[in-house]
Automatic annotation (TrEMBL), chains A, B:
This is Lrp/AsnC family transcriptional regulator. PROSITE patterns: HTH_ASNC_1 (PS00519), HTH_ASNC_2 (PS50956). It comes from Sphaerisporangium corydalis. Keywords: DNA-binding, Transcription, Transcription regulation. InterPro entries: AsnC-type_HTH_dom (IPR000485), Dimeric_a/b-barrel (IPR011008), Tscrpt_reg_AsnC-like (IPR019888), Tscrpt_reg_AsnC/Lrp_C (IPR019887), Tscrpt_reg_HTH_AsnC-type_CS (IPR019885), WH-like_DNA-bd_sf (IPR036388), WH_DNA-bd_sf (IPR036390). The keyword Transcription applies. Residues 3-64 form the HTH asnC-type domain.
Length: 156, 156
DNA sequence: ATTGAAATAAGCATAAC
DNA sequence: GTTATGCTTATTTCAAT
């Protein structure tokens, strides 16, 4: 599906504040409220926008520690196999297979360092995991919480 | 600030769908709409909830490639210095300092592999960067888009 | 201090054009 | 795409626990 400049502006506005009213967004981009709603509905049904969520301060919920864990897997472990295994752990907030020495990279959030260790142990207990290599996050510089700037690749 | 069970349920509901009505949330947790609104307002002003955002499919916006870049910095480069430098690049959607050999880890999104290379070049051009080590994401298994399961540490 | 109920104000959804 | 309209939701007020 093709997104024009207005669609991208709408996405940007909703990324910045998902609770903006259609009228507010319309005013910003020069469109009426119903026109904005129709476009939002279209963006939702096309899958460009997959939903709306609250931005939460992890520390407020007790998630004070985060870590990245590289997974080294045996032989030809499939991405699906890894995904299935780590999806069971709620502490894993992101996982992907990658190029390089390691096979996969996990991003985990936990209550404290001890909790991080428990999660790593659980991951390492999987049959396909040969070894892991972890790095604890010291200070977060840029959050993955989306902002307007990340709504579209820059023109360059 | 202390969050009770009702607050956590509200946060969970809003993480799952930021456009739920107060009445819907109230029905789920056994509270009236105004009571829910008051708690949401409190969660917002206390900073537990920092805002509401749209979940966007990156590929729909042209972000088809992602990578993780480890930064090895010279001497005693401060986290603030790294943060300031990478904040200028819109492709950097996450950045943190970490334990281990590398000093920092960046998560970047780009239009294609060529674009990833350009971003790495720009990062490497910073005076404090000694070298970088990158891994291109092959397949994403778990998204960082928050779901209900990630709204609170599990009881254990 | 926090809640629920009622009343008002605001925004939404759907029509029609 | 816009304008007009009934309907839902948000928000305020107030009494009660």
């Amino acid at each position: 599906m093709e997104l024009d400049a207005l669609d991208r502006a709408i996405v940007g506005a909703l990324v910045e504040d998902a609770r903006s009213t259609y009228a507010e967004i319309g005013h910003q981009i020069g469109l009426s409220a119903p026109a904005v709603k129709r476009r939002v509905d279209r963006l939702l049904s096309s899958g460009a926008i997959t939903g709306f969520t609250a931005r939460v301060e992890p520390s407020a919920l007790g998630w004070t520690t985060e870590a990245y864990v590289e997974l080294f897997c045996r032989g030809k472990t499939s991405p699906a196999e890894i995904g299935l295994a780590v999806a069971r752990l709620p502490e894993v907030i992101s996982a992907c297979t990658i190029t390089g020495e390691a096979d996969a990279l996990l991003h985990i959030r936990a209550k404290d360092v001890r909790h991080v260790e428990q999660v790593i142990e659980r991951v390492a207990a999987e049959a396909f995991v040969v070894r892991t290599k972890s790095a604890i996050v010291l200070s977060r510089l840029i959050d993955d919480t989306p902002h307007a700037a990340n709504a579209a690749p820059r023109a360059d």
